Amino acid sequence: MKLFLKIFLWAVIIIVLISLIPYIISPAYEFDDPSPFKGSSLYNPYKDIQNNNWYKANLHSHSDVWGNLADGRSSTPEAIHKVYSDMDYDIIGISNYMNLNVTDSHKDKLFPVYEHGFGIWKNHYLVVGADDISLIDFVYYPTLNNKQFLINLLKTENNLISIVHPWMRNAVSLNDVAYLDNYDCIEICRYSRTSVEYVDKALSSGKSIKLIANDDSHNINDQDEIGKGLTIINSKSKSYDDLISAVRQGSAVSVNLIKSGFNSFELKNYNITRLPNLIRFDVTGDSISLAFDSVAAKIKFIGQDGVMKSIVPNTYEAAYTFKNDDSYIRVETEFSSNAIYYLNPVYRYDSLYSKTYTAKINYPLSVIYYVLWISGIIIVVLIYKRKIYRKNNL
Fold first, then answer.
1. Does one domain contain both 13 and 125?
2. Are residues 337 and 380 in the same domain?
3. For the whole prediction, is pTM greater than 0.90?
4. Is there a domain that residue 36 lies in?
5. Does 13 share its domain with 46?
6. Three-class secondary structure assignment of the chain
7. Are 285 and 346 members of one domain?
8. Number of structural domains, the chain?
9. Would 35 be classed as within a structural domain?
């Protein structure tokens, strides 16, 4: 029994030490103070849209992996493919926790994507276009520095990084999105709720992020988890490179169907195939004008700090003129079905190729952190050795 307890104790110690490695190697960063977008030009994310090139996508769903320990339930990749194909989806992401789906079938629609994170605080990121899995994560509470380190670790030139369900266990706070850098998107809609306040906080802080919406489904047979959030992407083609380029540019619309009333698979199969489309979005001088192919109950223009700037009811089209104090404007459109469309923001800029903020490593402070960590480990080892010595010499 004593031997078993000793082995168990050592196993716990080793696991804890391994779990501390990311904290030990994570550097400190310098973050610029949040500041609104500035400039004389306006960025139009929809400048190249083509009316026949809209593709429906759900990039966040879970299948049966890890022996169902990760809550994939009975959702096989084949079942996920069929359900979303029946709803006329063009792109399907099976985003299992720390696992890339390697199913060879249905490659015409399945995207390489996984959900990164196994920590207690649900600090998760959707990695779209991943070539491999990173095993580094922060099991315990991650600091702002830790979150930036992880984003930088996951980010490549060819992938997309999206913050998902930031509100869950306060995984990413409103303060965090005001400072974090080097990620591409925030998931504004998930089947259970939205993250609108996080989007406006990031945009109000000068972060040129884009929006996506997904189901984050765990049970493909549960109609309350399916067809609740989707991203409609305007892309030259369904190729991975073109789709990623379109999302990165902002040529996509996030759709919230949480309150749409499409409460059966039959209704979803019928109605989702007939969702309205954005057919025009122009930015000329300091004015925005847009149009849909169906009448909208409300077209809302929202600006700095999430303030409602204008509402236009019962119309196909609407326009808005930037005011001097407008740093960005994003559009929310409500339809009679209660479907809500979140459009990507138009924001001020001087140069598209100079990022507003870039988190930089603070090397002196990082060295101090490393010294403190190493000193702490040395002290713990010395205390343990002293305890063993005293025990053996009593």
1. no
2. no
3. yes
4. no
5. no
6. CHHHHHHHHHHHHHHHHHHHHHHHHCCCEECCCCCCCCCCEEECCCCCCCCCCEEEEECCECCCCHHHCCCCCCCCHHHHHHHHHHCCCCEEECCCECCCCCCCCCCCCEECEEEECCCCCCCCEEEECCCCCCCCCCCCCCCHHHHHHHHHHHCCCCCEEEECCCCHHHCCCHHHHHHCCCCCEEEEEECCEECHHHHHHHHHCCCCCEEEECCCECCCCCCCCCCCEEEEEECCCCCHHHHHHHHHHCCEEEEECCCCCCCCHHHHHHHHHHCCCEEEEEEECCEEEEEEEEEEEEEEEEEHHHEEEEEEEEEEEEEEECCCCCCEEEEEEECCCCCEEEECCEEEECCCCCCCCCCEECHHHHHHHHHHHHHHHHHHHHHHHHHHHHHHCC
7. yes
8. 2
9. no
Residue 130 domain flag: yes
Asked if residue 203 belongs to a domain, the reply is yes
How far apart are alpha carbons 60 and 114 in whole angstroms?
Answer: 8
Domain hosting residue 377, numbered range: 2-30+362-392
Q: What is the pLDDT along the chain (394 residues), one digit of tens a residue?
A: 777 877 887 788 788 889 999 999 999 999 999 999 999 999 999 998 999 899 999 999 999 876 666 565 668 888 999 999 999 999 999 999 998 876 655 667 888 899 999 999 999 999 999 888 999 999 999 999 999 999 999 999 999 999 999 999 999 999 999 999 999 999 999 988 999 999 999 999 999 999 999 999 999 999 999 999 999 999 999 999 999 999 999 999 999 999 999 989 999 999 999 999 999 999 999 999 999 999 999 999 999 999 999 999 999 999 999 999 999 999 999 999 999 999 999 999 987 655 556 799 999 999 999 999 989 888 887 887 777 667 667 6
Residues 244/279, Cβ–Cβ less than 8 Å: no
Reference 115, options 123, 129, 125; nearest CA is 125
Tokens 């600090």 found at:
123
CB atoms within 10 A of CB 38: 12
Is the domain of 54 the same as that of 70? yes
Within this chain, do residues 324 and 368 fall inside the same structural domain, yes or no? Answer: no
